[in-house]
Amino acid sequence: MEKTNVFLDYKGKSYKIPVTRVEFEEATKSLMNRTEELLDDVVEESGISWDEIDQVLLIGGSTRMPMVQRKLEEKIGKKIVYSINPDEAVAQGAAIQAALEIANKSEGSDISEAVRGLAEKLVVSDVTSQALGTLALSNGVKRNTIIIPKNSKVPNKYSEYFSTVVDNQQNVLVEVTQGDDEDPQFVTVIGESTIKLPGDWAAGTTLKVTYHYDVDQTVFVEVHDSDNHLLGTFEVERQANLDKNAVELASRKIKDLTID
C-alpha cells in the first residue's frame, strides 16, 4: 500500500488526512537514523560485530514498517527472520519474566513443573541503561565521575574514592548523576544530599562513596571515612517515566495545538 488515510477527531471535528508512504518515511527518517545509531551502539558495547550475528528477530509493532525491515537488511547484509509475531513476542517475553519472578520468589508454591523447569533453564539479567556517578572537583574543575558503569548487571554495588578540598571541611554535597559524559552539562543530577563531616580533617582526607543499585531502580548511597566508619546515607529513586510536572507541561502544549 503506497497511500492511506489517517482519521483524526480533534475539538469536536473529524479530519481525514491522506498520507503517502513517501511522506511517512520522510517524516520518520530522523527516527530511523536514530534507531540505526542505537543499533551500532548496542553491537559495539556487546563486543561483537555484525558478522558474528546469525539471525535478527523483529520485535514490536514498529518493526512491521517496510522501511525498518529494508534498512535493517541493508545494514546487516542478511535476511531478517519473520518466524514470530512481533506483537505477541513482547507479551510472551513479559509472561516469561513473570514466570521467572514467581518461581524465584515463591519457593514451594503451587506453580506448574513447566514454569519451574523454565526458571531453572533461563537466566534473565537486568542492566543499568545509563552510568551512575557523582560530581567532584578534579584539578579545580567540577567533573562527572562514573561510579556504576553503563550496562552493569543489576543488582550491583560499586565504590569510588574522593578527597576533601579544604582543611576543617564541615560537609560534602553528594550529587548522584545519570549519564556517561565527564562534562556535568551533559549528565542529569537525579538526587543529592549533604553529608556532615567531623570538621577537623585536613584537606585531602579520603572519603569512600558507595552506590548500591537494586532491581527496583533505587540507588542507595553510603559515604564512609578512611576507616570505613559510616558518615551518612541516603537513597534516590530513578524515575523511569515523566514526572507530574512534565506530564502537565506536555498536556498544555497539546491543548495549544491547532489544525487548519
Automatic annotation (TrEMBL):
<keyword id="KW-0597">Phosphoprotein</keyword>
<dbReference type="InterPro" id="IPR043129">
    <property type="entry name" value="ATPase_NBD"/>
</dbReference>
<dbReference type="GO" id="GO:0140662">
    <property type="term" value="F:ATP-dependent protein folding chaperone"/>
</dbReference>
<dbReference type="InterPro" id="IPR018181">
    <property type="entry name" value="Heat_shock_70_CS"/>
</dbReference>
<comment type="similarity">
    <text>Belongs to the heat shock protein 70 family.</text>
</comment>
<keyword id="KW-0067">ATP-binding</keyword>
<dbReference type="Pfam" id="PF00012">
    <property type="entry name" value="HSP70"/>
</dbReference>
<comment type="function">
    <text>Acts as a chaperone.</text>
</comment>
<dbReference type="GO" id="GO:0005524">
    <property type="term" value="F:ATP binding"/>
</dbReference>
<keyword id="KW-0346">Stress response</keyword>
<keyword id="KW-0547">Nucleotide-binding</keyword>
<protein>
    <recommendedName>
        <fullName>Chaperone protein DnaK</fullName>
    </recommendedName>
</protein>
<dbReference type="InterPro" id="IPR013126">
    <property type="entry name" value="Hsp_70_fam"/>
</dbReference>
<dbReference type="InterPro" id="IPR029047">
    <property type="entry name" value="HSP70_peptide-bd_sf"/>
</dbReference>
<keyword id="KW-0143">Chaperone</keyword>
